[in-house]
Structures are given as structure tokens and as C-alpha cells.
Amino acid sequence: MTPDDKIKELGIDLTAYQPPANLAPATRIGSTIYTSGHVSTGYKGKLGQDLITAQGQEAARVCAVQLLQAVYTLTGTLNNLRCVKVLGCVNSAPDFVEQHLVINGASQLFWDVFGKDSRGYHARSALGFASLPVGFAVEIEAIFEVIDES
Fold first, then answer.
1. Which DSSP letter does residue 120 get?
2. End-to-end CA distance of the chain
3. In the beta sheet, which residues pair with residue 123?
4. Angle at 85 between CA 44 and CA 68, to 5 degrees
5. Domains of the chain
6. What is the radius of gyration, based on Cα positions, of the chain?
7. 71-80, pLDDT tens digit by residue?
8. Per-residue pLDDT reduced to its tens digit, 25-79
């Protein structure tokens, strides 16, 4: 099953993306796509204070869907992509230490779409922040490689 087939099976519409008006959601240089940070629409607050880890994972998945939609606007397909790097930022209470578990919500979607042991296997950072823009719970950016399949 291709990544495009998998995303459809998951019920995710890549064309339903509402890109921000004031920035490029993703940009391509050669075979590399860099995404802007995408926020957890529908999830605001601090993890460990207002939200629990499971809610943070849902918020991270929201970000991952937006990231895939952003790269899709450039490529028109997910079939020739590989997830290379993920940077996850978590709006955290001072004693919250499960940022890595929160960002698993995004990593899991990439594994489901691209394969955990193949094109979805990525380097990752999960960091806690005192605050994020507009109080969002999670912000994630990613780097993808466009693979020449000719």
C-alpha cells in the first residue's frame, strides 16, 4: 500500500489544508522540503497543567496532519517522500517531563503513513517550552526528502 493509499485509509484529506496567509507552509530546495512550524489547532494550554499526555499526543497528531498537507501542496503526492527530521515543541508546565511521549503522536502518524522501519524512520527532538505562540499546546516542524524514483 502506498503512502497516498494509507493516508486515505486513515481518513485524512490532504487537500483540506488551510495554509497560513503570512508565511510559506513549506519550501523546497532541491530534494529537501522544509516545513514551517504547524500548531495544534484545537489544543491550547500547558501539558502537565491544563492537558494530559494523551491530549498532547492528539495535539501532535493534528500538527503532523498539517505538515503532511503542507508538503502535499508542493508535491501533489506523499509516495515519493521520506521523513528525515522532526522538531517537536511542547508548551510545558515546569515539572512536565513527557515531551517525548507527546511528540510520539506525530511520529506515529509518520510511521503509519511511510513505515516505521523505512521512509517514516526519522531523527527527532522533543523539547519543552515555557510558552508557545497564542498558547497552543504543541508546534512541530519537519524536514522531508523527495526521493527520485526514476
1. T
2. 19
3. 85
4. 60
5. 3-9+32-146 (3.30.1330.40)
6. 15
7. 999 999 999 9
8. 999 999 999 999 999 999 999 999 999 999 999 999 999 999 999 999 999 999 9
